[in-house]
What does this fold into?
Amino acid sequence: MNLDVLSFNIRHGLGTDGVLDLDRTARVIRSSGADVIGLQEVDRHFGERSDWGDQATALAELLGYHLAFGANIDLDPPAPGRPRIQYGTAVLSRHPIVRWDNTHLFRSPDEEQRGLLHAEIDVYGVAVHVYTAHLELFSETDRVQQAEQVVELIGATGPAVLLGDFNATPRTAEIATVRASFTDAWTAFGSARAGSPGCGSAPAGGCPGRPASARSSSAAPGTCRCSPGWWSGRRTARGSG
It folds into this structure.
């Protein structure tokens, strides 16, 4: 069984050209040919920056994919009768999503709430567990604890794929924690197509460390590559296995 996965920090659909264009985001995802996509920085009625739209549902409808959304920020609506203000991660899948859950991760005071979104996907009768996370940007202490939580929450579940924007470079403690429990697709099949042996949490013009990356447990990764582009503030990372 081959499953092509993509991890993509969409930055609420805002390109490096400063243009908000969710249709463009959908075209990038479609052109990847991925079966399952882990998204970070997804708005759902979040504010004017994304025209108060439900980006998760809009992308699912544009692509014809199944959807799971995890709200890590969940605020009261701006007025009675309006939807809740939400921001978080999402999983899009060509295959049916059987069930899903979102677990909030450790957060120091004044730091942004982060979470681990889990979607169980029926891939031709095989239950595949896909996780996506977006770890803390500013606090290394938070990232380390969040990485430990992610590993603990996934446990021995398998076959499983972990996708996400970990906001960390390869030699950090948080990446070491994840590597100890998962096969790192970038280590096993890292591509130099983007100019380095791995992808990094960096603007789309550069690819120095580890970003959105694919990791698997109880499953063998096949190939992995980093896709350059101007469509958002982050690169995409893609793997198959």
Residues 65 and 94 are 5 Å apart (CA to CA).
